[in-house]
Amino acid sequence: MLALWVKALHIVAVFAWMAGLFYLPRLFVYHTRQELGSDSDRLFIHMEDRLVKVIMRPAGVVTLLAGVVLVGVSGFSWGDGWLSAKLLGVLGLVIYHSSLERYAFEFRHGRRLRSERFFRVVNEVPTVLLVWIVIWVVVKPSI
Ligand code: HEM
Predict the structure, then answer these.
(1) Radius of gyration of the chain from its Cα atoms, rounded to whole angstroms
(2) Among 43, 69, 79, 99, which one is most buried in terms of CB atoms within 10 A?
(3) Over residues 97-105, mean pLDDT
(4) Which SS3 state, helix, strand or coil, does residue 67 take?
(5) In terms of Cα–Cα distance, which of 52, 32, 41 is closest to 113?
C-alpha cells in the first residue's frame, strides 16, 4: 500500500515539474520581445523567478526523492535495465532544468544572448525526454 501512495506522490510531482519545464521556455520566447528595463521586462523576470522557486525546484526535488524511495519500497533493483534507461532520461531533464535556470539568470541580469527561435526549439526537448521516460517506466522493454 505504501508503494502506491509514494507512486501517487511521484506522479503528481512529475506533473508539476513537467508543467514548469514546458512553461518556462514559453515565457522566455515572449520575454525576448520585451524592451530591456521596461515594466514588462521586470514582470517577466518576476514570473520566471516565481515559477522556478515556487513550483519547479520543489516539484523536481519531490519527483527525484519519491522516485528513489519507490525503487526501495517496490522491490526494484537499481541494476534493472528499464530503470537505467529511464534514469538517462531523468538526467537529461535535470540538465535541462539547470539550463533553464541559467537562462532565467541571464534575463535577470539584462543579458539577451539567445533568440526567440532558440527558445522555441529548446521548448521541444522535454517532450522527447518525457516520451523516453514514460515508455521505459510503463512498458519496461527488456534490454
Ligand atoms: C531519480 C529519479 C526517478 C526514479 C528513481 C524513479 C523511479 C520510479 C519507480 C521505481 C517507479 C515505479 C515503477 C512501477 O511501479 O512499475 C516509477 C514510476 C513512475 N515514474 Fe519515476 N522515477 C524517477 C523520476 C521520474 C521522472 C523524472 C518522471 C517523468 C518525467 C517519472 C515518471 C514516472 C511515471 C509516469 C511512473 C508511473 C509508471 C506506472 O505506474 O506504470 N519518474 N518511477
Answers:
(1) 17
(2) 69
(3) 98
(4) helix
(5) 32
